[in-house]
Amino acid sequence: MLSVNLGPFALPSSLLLLLVAGLVAAGVGHLVGRRQQTGIGNTLSDMLLAAVLVARIAFVTLWFETYRSTPWSMLDIRDGGFTAWAGIAAALLVAVWRGWRRPALRKPLMLGLAAGALVWGALFGALRMTEQPALPKLALMTLAGESTDLAALAAGKPMVVNLWASWCPPCLREMPVLAAAQKRETGVRFVFVNQGENGATVQRYLSAGQLDLTNVLLDPATSLGREVGSGALPTTLFYDANGRLADTHLGELSAASLASKLNPLRKSANASAKD
Q1: What is the pLDDT of residues 66-121, one digit of tens each?
Q2: What is the pTM assigned to this prediction?
Q3: CA atoms within 13 A on the CB side of 149
Q4: Considering only CA atoms, which of 159, 177, 175 is closest in space to residue 167?
Q5: N or C: which end of the chain has fewer CB within 10 A?
Q6: Domains defined along the chain, listed by start
């Protein structure tokens, strides 16, 4: 399950897990530190802020050449461009610094973080068990009206599967980035699976946007979105050369966030070629 629907909104499952873990950590920290009237809510907020800032700065630094042509996009965190290890390190440094300055905070903070980490790990493991690890075996349709499936298009190459619709603004904004990547990354198969629209609507959009895409498929019943557990658009799935799900992305992709996801796919393709 990649997302959870809350009314008209689709919340990424990873973000939901983080919120639940944070609430558990805050609750345990409050219970442990209530005798000394020591809460850890402010420390957790500072840890989160430090993690987001440092993770973003690290990602932008690593992919600076990609951001150079559009420097304003460095501030647009909607592309999901974060370096996880840098953010975790920053959060832990804040925790250590706060614990060093306030000895009474050490026990509630340590136990709260431990409880939050345990809950996150348990939920993450349960969530992974619900994921579809291989290419879904669903019948899709080409713009010419012929039946096909993802496995038939893979042909032993890594695959990027983009779920989109013409009424979805983030889908439209990221489409030129994906179109350029499809032309450039000849070792990766890009597939664009439209969700819930007919062929005429899709063809009008492609013609109006002058997008020269290949492997555009139709999924009128939105079966693929349900199969992979995502009610959000756009959703992009990254499969390695063996057809295993390697990564996912909910929301708009930038050139930098797409490049960061493609790197592991190239490595998988090279490894498969050597074998």
Answers
A1: 998 888 889 988 899 999 999 999 999 999 999 999 999 999 999 999 999 999 99
A2: 0.89
A3: 9
A4: 175
A5: C
A6: 8-129 (no CATH), 140-274 (3.40.30.10)
